[in-house]
Amino acid sequence: MLDIRSVQNGVVFKVRVQPRASKDQVAGLWEDAVKIRLTAPPVEGEANRALCDFLAKHLGVTRAQVDLVTGQTGRNKLVRVSGITAESVLQRLGLYKN
Fold it and tell me: Are 84 and 93 in contact (CB under 8 A)?
């Protein structure tokens, strides 16, 4: 189950990034985080920028609404997205189960 929390004006959730993948995609759940595969390499913040762009596009928010809270140098990250609900995140990332 994804560890996602509602905060003032948005949500915070865990992400596990796999850089240098063959394509950008949501790869399901990894423990209590959403696993995201990115083609970007993990150098000079490229994977972090690609992650924020990927999430903004898939969640239907602007890039400015996506912020890395922790994990700038690791694969495990905590992401804050403002202006969206937890249910919307689950639906838009394809993780919502009826």
Answer: no
Instruction: Give the distance from CA 5 to its chain's centroid.
Output: 13
Distances, alpha carbon 27 to alpha carbons 8, 44, 75, 86, in Å = 28, 24, 14, 18
The overall pTM is greater than 0.85: yes
**C-alpha torsion angle, residues 61, 85, 42, 22 (rounded to 10):** -80
What pLDDT was estimated at residue 1?
A: 81
Contacts of 9 (CB under 8 A, 6+ apart): 82, 83
Give domain limits for the chain.
4-92
For the structural domain made of 4-92, what CATH number should be given? Answer: 3.30.1200.10
pLDDT tens digits, one per residue of 31-54: 999 999 999 999 999 999 999 999
Give the C-alpha separation, 42 to 60, whole Å: 25
Q: Is the pLDDT confidence value at 97 over 70?
A: no
The token pair that represents 63 in the structure block: 């890039």
